[in-house]
Amino acid sequence: MNAGERVREAWRRDRVFEFMLPPPQFDLPVDTRHGPILYLEDVSVSFDGFKAINNLNLYIDDGELRCIIGPNGSGKTTMMDIITGKTRPDSGTVWFGQGIDLLKLREPTIARGIGRKFQKPTVFEQLTVFENLELAMASDKRVWPNLFFRLAAEQRARIDEVLELIRLQDQRSCLAGILSHGQKQWLEIGMLLMQNPRILLVDEPVAGMTGEETERTAELLTSLAGRHSVIVVEHDMAFVRSIARKVTVLHQGSVLAEGTMDQVQNDPRVIEVYLGE
After folding, report:
1. Domain positions in the chain
2. pTM above the 0.70 mark?
3. Which fold has domain 3-275?
4. Among residues 38, 56, 79, which one has the least CA distance to residue 254?
5. What is the pLDDT of residues 177-218, one digit of tens each?
6. How far apart are CA 109 and CA 26, in angstroms?
7. Cβ proximity of 91 and 42 under 8 Å
8. I want to staple 65 with a disulfide (CB 3.0 to 4.6 A). Which of 155, 178, 225, 252 is the partner?
9. What CA–CA distance (Å, rounded) separates 158 from 33?
């Protein structure tokens, strides 16, 4: 096709451009009738001969708050990368509920049902707190609809609800850049909540926080359990104890121990490879 033909093709009256198409939908129902909302079974992945994940089996119940701990290099970050589609395992299966094979989905599609908060907050510092939440709202992000976008009453109500949940009502009109470190972390969690994920992955949420901010973060995460499944990766053992119902210990890419905080803290294997450090 020459240049003239390409131009005529582009401007055909029946031509539908990609930015005008409806966004892809994460519209399959999540089947949690058997309890778990997330299954990782026999998952392994290697990088340049190093086995980062080694026959990992992990099950997260619907509405559960689970803490994941383990020494550096134990596979925590790689596990989250696999769940969110950033890394594809060499073997094994990863299911969202009974019927959604996450290994067949791309990262942006997975993000519609599974939200991930990295350790360093990534908010839009030149926008207000309200605008950050508005921008993060689960909505049509294509160019044409956004030219005429106006917040509906129910959308404003949802933003107000999240502002109250993350305790930033009084900062709604403040620029995100002037927030404290802890407040930025809460704002980013709020931005994820605006997308209504079924699962939240939260990486070291209290690193660098004050004692008061840490307590508030514990209250926030525990309040989310039940409405969401929350997976927290954290090194602060006092914080883990304050929120944990169930703790999973990773070591060399697989589950070393699992149970209550008291159970894992008293496990000789955990003491040897992690808590004894």
Report:
1. 3-275
2. yes
3. Rossmann fold (3.40.50)
4. 56
5. 999 999 999 999 999 999 999 999 999 999 989 999 999 999
6. 6
7. yes
8. 225
9. 28
